[in-house]
Amino acid sequence: MPEGKPDTKSDNNPDHKGNSELDELLSFHGYMFFVIGINTFETPRSSAWVGSSKVHKDDFMDHNGIFSADTLTARFPEPDSIPSDACWILVKDAGVYITAGPVPTIFVPGPPEAHARSGLLIQYLGHHEDIPCYAAGIAEPARAQEGMEYAGVRELFGKIPDEELAIASFAARMIMFDRNTRFCGRCGAPTRQLRTERAKLCSDCNLITYPRISPAIIVLVRNGNRILLARSPRFPPGQYSVIAGFVESGENIEHAVRREVREETGIEITNIRYSGSEPWPFPDSLMIGFTADYAGGEIRIDNNEIVSADWFDRDHLPLLPSKMSISRALIDQWIARDSPC
Ligand SMILES: [Zn+2]
Questions:
Q1: 272 in helix, strand or coil?
Q2: From the CA of 335, how far away is ligand 1's center (Å)?
Q3: Distance of CA 209 from the midpoint of ligand 1 (Å)
Q4: Of 16, 75, 145, 211, which alpha carbon lies 20 to 30 A from 26's?
Q5: Domain ranges of the chain
Q6: What is the rounded CA–CA span in Å between residue 291 and residue 269?
Q7: 72-209 in CATH: which number?
Q8: Spelled out in words, what is the top-level CATH class assigned to the domain 19-66+212-338?
Q9: What pLDDT does residue 228 have?
Q10: What's the predicted TM-score (pTM) here?
Q11: Cα 187 to ligand 1 centre (Å)
């Protein structure tokens, strides 16, 4: 891309949900994430916005998702200067460097200039245990990173603590935001990082650009003692999962839930209830989980996004997604809740 031209794939571009991101989402709800326990749902406002029925306490999961970087606390304005004891995460492309050895960690010693031959970008992430934490995006390592290994963020699952995995994914996400918003999406002028909030400001027209978040719904549909599961062509052989898809501009989340189920399976639903959420920063999804009840219709698939769909009872479930996924959390919750014990 020529210098001075805005990147059309930038965070300013609303038409961003290309096939690669759809693939990402579908792969995600087939493969990833993990289960936390069931909790009660006591927020009174919640029953008002999720639909006409009361929220059943067992519909809600205390599910943050493994990529929720909630151990970081953002303090704005950012520190005036970067302290010498700041913690650094080295990002290159969609991966990070970790220290090698029996207890690998994403936190590496600074300054970041020592690690980058070119293309250094710096993003404040937040404070981690009172220490400011920064992502350093490097285009080219300065040298062979002695004592370090490079890995894609998702490859690090199980190799480093979940808390660090969440921070690593957030760091990669913020460096991507930095790279994708070097120029204003409206006028093409260079932008600069704001220190008072996580955003970029255009140097010419003053447009402010924030990191993009793309909401996506995921829903478990019940029909008596059965649930609706569908199969994407991207899934491993035999695997099914619950319905998922991106929220479109101009619709609310409940509408998106109804539309996705209707479009992908021909089924109408009612009684939509919020169940939990999780971030998926590849690049920028937020998965919002629901449970709903069958209201009518016959299964009719599009043979594009979905190649098979059916109702399954507890004793005849197909191959399910990994226990790391919110989709599996929704299914496991249904199994536990409806089990005769
Ligand atoms: Zn501008």
A1: strand
A2: 52
A3: 10
A4: 211
A5: 19-66+212-338, 72-209
A6: 10
A7: 3.90.79.20
A8: alpha beta
A9: 98
A10: 0.78
A11: 4
